[in-house]
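Sorry to interrupt, but I need a hand with the structure work. Could you add the entry underneath, on a fresh line?
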Amino acid sequence: MAEKLPFGEATSINRPPLFCGLNYQSCKVRMKIFVETIDRGIWNAIINGPFVPKFEKDDVFIENPWSQWTKSESKKGRYDFIAKNIITSTLNSDEFFRVSQCASAKEMWNILEVTHEGTTDVKRARKYALIQEYEMFIMLKGETISDVQKRFTHIVNYLINLGKIFEREELNIKIPKCLDRSWQPKVIAISESKYLTTLTTAPLFSNLREHQLEMNRLNDQEHEEKHVRSITLRCQS
C-alpha cells in the first residue's frame, strides 16, 4: 500500500508529490528526485534558469532568434517549459496563484523557497539555531534508540538542506556521545571500534537497536526469574 503523505496524495513514480503549503522541505527533496529521474536538464533549468542561445557581435552577446535555434538548442530551451509544467502541476490553488505570473521555472522555485523557507537571513538564523540544537543533542529520558535516531536524523537532514556539511566520522562520534550513562559500556566499545570512519549512521543506529533489544530481553528474563523465585519462596514458607 502506498504511503499516505501530508502533501495530499500518495507517492507515485509517475507524478510529483502534491504540495499544499505543508512540509516544504520534504516536498522539495521529493521534487528534485522526481525531476532528475525525467531529465537532469529540467532540474538545471529550475536552478539556473532557462537556456537561451546567444551569439557575440561587436563584443555584445545577443539572443539568437528562436527560429534559428538548432535541434539541440530547442531541446534545451524546452526544459524550462517542462519544469514550469511540473511545478504548477504539484501545487494546490493557493500555491499556484503565488507563482502563476512567473516567467520561468527558476522564478517560481525561488518564490516558493522564500515563502516557505524564508530569506537568506532567515535561513541563516535557522541554520545557527539548528547547529546549537545539534551540538546540545542528548538522549532524553525514556527514549528508545529509534526515537533518538528520528530526532537526530531530522536535525542533520535539515542542516544539510541549509548547506551544512558533515563528515561521516563526525556524526558517528556524535551519536555515542549523546547517549545516557546506561549506555556507557556500549559507548566505550563503539569508541574503540575501527569502523567509525567507514560506517554510515544507519548501520550504527541499527547496531544500537540490536543492543537495546538484547538488553531488554535480558532485563525481561531477569525480571521473570525474580518473579519465579519470589513465588517459589512464598510457596516454601
Q: What stands out?
A: Confidence is low (pLDDT under 50) at residues 1-10. The chain has ten helices and two strands. The first strand starts at residue 54 and ends at 57.
